[in-house]
Fold this sequence. Notes:
- This protein has 3 helices and no strands.
- By secondary structure, the protein is mainly α.
- It has 2 domains: about 1-55; about 65-119.
- The radius of gyration is 33 Å and the shape is elongated.
Amino acid sequence: MSDHPVAQELVSMDYDTYASELSPLEIETLKQYQNLALNLIQLKNDIVTLNKEVDSTSNGLARGASPKDSLLEELRELETKVSVISTLFKSSVYQVVVNNSSNLGPTNELTTSIQDDTI
Length: 119
């Protein structure tokens, strides 16, 4: 599982054999840490496997480009698209505000002049 001999020993250790030296809570805690270590080792192995699969299939990657570079390129593309959408959204909101203020402008002036006349 793990390349490091101490880690290998800790992951394969049976903590129930230390029942006379450790409390049940300590044993359960050690078992949970052992389970966490096993899950992390499995996750590491899965990530290594996925990276090898990505390396073996070019999937349109440029020569010499790493999967990391490809991911960054895709994220830059996404950032550009989000920026364009944000700009369009802001301009639409601005247009709505301008249209509403031009529609409300004469009404506001009218009510202001009426109020001035009544006072």
